[in-house]
Amino acid sequence: MYADQAKPTISIVIPTRNEAQNLSYLLPQIPADIEEIILVDGHSTDDTIAVAQKLRSDIRIIQQTGIGKGDAMRAGFVACTQDIIVMLDADGSADPAEIPFFVDALKRGGDFAKGSRYLKGGGSSDITPLRQAGNWALCVLTNLLFREKFTDLCYGYNVFWRRCLDLVTLDAMGFDIEAQLCLRMLKAGVRMVEVSSMEHSRVFGESNLNTFKDGWLVLKVIVFEWMHQSVPQLAPKQQQSATISMHTSEELSL
């Protein structure tokens, strides 16, 4: 739909709350030539903002007025000005070195590049057996209801053309934002492309994710989207989610 630019510009959205230590690890890994980094701060009480500004003088800081990851991501999306949006967690679990693979998937015809820990070349050193089982069940349900072939529904490392946001409305407040965004993009007719990704363990601190609470929220999103909105008839080339495995870094450049 939007694969019309040889070298698109990039906005990275990073939701944070008391992530000063992790930002010290994450921000130096982001390529210096990324055009826009937006940090959405959720009422941090540590040195999150000071650390971010020290490490990246060009970073844009947005103070979150609401609460929750979904609210933070939506605020960040509104602030983005570049061609492509990258969703990047602040805890160091997502590797910025993978951004070129996602961007390449978009340049080759994808509209929404969805990270997958279960494609060849992907994996996770962070997910627990309980969370893995829950993600599998939610993914199977989604594929049955929407006649899709997703391998990983709940992973938050996603990259998409900013113009795709014109096609959807988002209102999720918490960790269910990834599922809502994915399903509403799907139903809007964008071409979903899976890209293999390696999820690392959180570097410092404890995750804010609650397996049962947030799993229930995702389940409600899946059922709501299936019951209240119909999936549009897509063109033949869009009817199945594509999959892209990891390439070597020498093959791609931003």
TrEMBL record:
It holds the Pfam family Glycos_transf_2. InterPro entries: Glyco_trans_2-like (IPR001173), Glycosyltransferase_2 (IPR050256), Nucleotide-diphossugar_trans (IPR029044). Signal peptide: none annotated. Residues 11-154 form the Glycosyltransferase 2-like domain. This is Glycosyltransferase 2-like domain-containing protein.
